[in-house]
Design brief:
- By secondary structure, the protein is an alpha/beta fold.
- 41% of the residues lie in helices and 22% in strands.
- It folds into two domains: 39-120 and 233-277, D-Maltodextrin-Binding Protein, domain 2 (3-Layer(aba) Sandwich), CATH 3.40.190.10; 122-224, D-Maltodextrin-Binding Protein, domain 2 (3-Layer(aba) Sandwich).
- The protein has helices spanning 2-38, 47-56, 58-63, 78-84, 96-106, 146-158, 208-213, 230-234, 249-258, 261-270; strands at residues 40-45, 67-72, 90-95, 110-118, 122-125, 139-143, 163-164, 177-179, 185-189, 203-206, 223-224, 236-242, 276-277.
- The longest helix is centred in the first third of the chain and has 37 residues, at 2-38.
- The termini are far apart.
């Protein structure tokens, strides 16, 4: 009887040890998986220049123990909803007026943590090769999102082509045009589509990132915002995270590597004035 009890005890002890080992192994696997996920930083960006600039800091983040994964987008909506939903840790493609308008319209909770660069907004030639040659009823393409449309209209106003209601500023739409001597037809298009529509309009107001992708240079624009203007601060492109993540380790690491001489020099040396560092 005693022998049987001893065998039972030993067997039970072995079983307990095996279970303990299996549990420890499972915990180890879980820990490794969690650790790997925590070391990945996913940032959404439009291809040019944002994703290109992010590529520059991959090695710097690797030195800090992070793997940077860049997710490219060709629109201005999905990268924001992806940060709000937690699919991305951050995004880099927009300026603050657009972000504030997006939060208001979509009910999102996104915040800016760093100003990185400014892209002079330009008017580019389509069927008409100069502003002086614009004829009555000429078609002008502008972005259809609120803040970028306002920016385009303000640039048209600065060139004396239209006049807007007093004080409309960054809320301006084509309905706010009070004087239009040439009866310009304002054609609202999604920002990314405008470069592809140049052949269908007389001139177009284009964001610099989309102009760059289309092989357009701001130095060849018919008119552009001044790099030393108030717009340079207002429309600085920013690093964005979800509210509450401003001081996370990942956010701090991104801020440190992007706010660097290496990034500043890369921007100055590669974009010929179409992208201007703002830090």
């Amino acid at each position: 009887m005693r022998k049987n009890l001893t065998k039972t005890f030993v067997s039970g002890k072995k079983t307990a040890l095996v279970l303990a080992a299996v549990t420890a192994f499972a915990i180890g696997l879980t820990g490794c998986g969690k650790s790997k996920k925590d070391n990945i930083i996913k940032v959404g960006a439009t291809p040019t220049p944002h994703a290109e600039i992010l590529e520059i800091v991959k090695d710097d983040l690797k030195d800090k123990g992070y793997e940077l994964q860049i997710v490219e987008y060709n629109d201005y909506v999905l990268p924001n909803t992806a940060v709000e939903d937690g699919e991305l840790d951050a995004n880099y493609f927009q300026h603050l007026p657009y972000l504030e308008d997006f939060n208001k319209e979509k009910g999102t909770h996104l915040v800016s943590v760093l100003q990185i660069h400014y892209e002079p907004f330009g008017l580019y030639a389509g069927k008409t090769k100069s502003l002086a040659e614009l004829s009555d009823g000429a078609k002008v393409a502008v972005p259809n999102d609120t803040t970028n449309e306002a920016r385009a209209l303000l640039l048209l106003e600065q060139q004396g082509l239209i006049k807007l209601k007093e004080g409309v500023g960054l809320t301006a739409t084509k309905l706010d045009i009070v004087e239009n001597p040439l009866n310009l037809e304002i054609v609202e298009l999604e920002a990314a589509q405008i470069p592809r529509s140049l052949q269908d309009v007389d001139i177009a107001a284009i964001n610099s990132n989309y102009a760059l992708e289309a092989g357009l240079n701001v130095k060849d624009a018919l008119a552009a915002e001044s790099a030393d203007s108030v717009a340079a601060q207002t429309y600085a492109n920013i690093l964005v995270v979800k509210e509450g993540n401003e001081n996370s380790d990942k956010t701090k690491a991104l801020i440190e590597v992007l706010n660097s001489d290496e990034v500043r020099d890369y921007i100055n040396n590669n974009y010929d004035g179409a992208v201007v560092p703002i830090f």
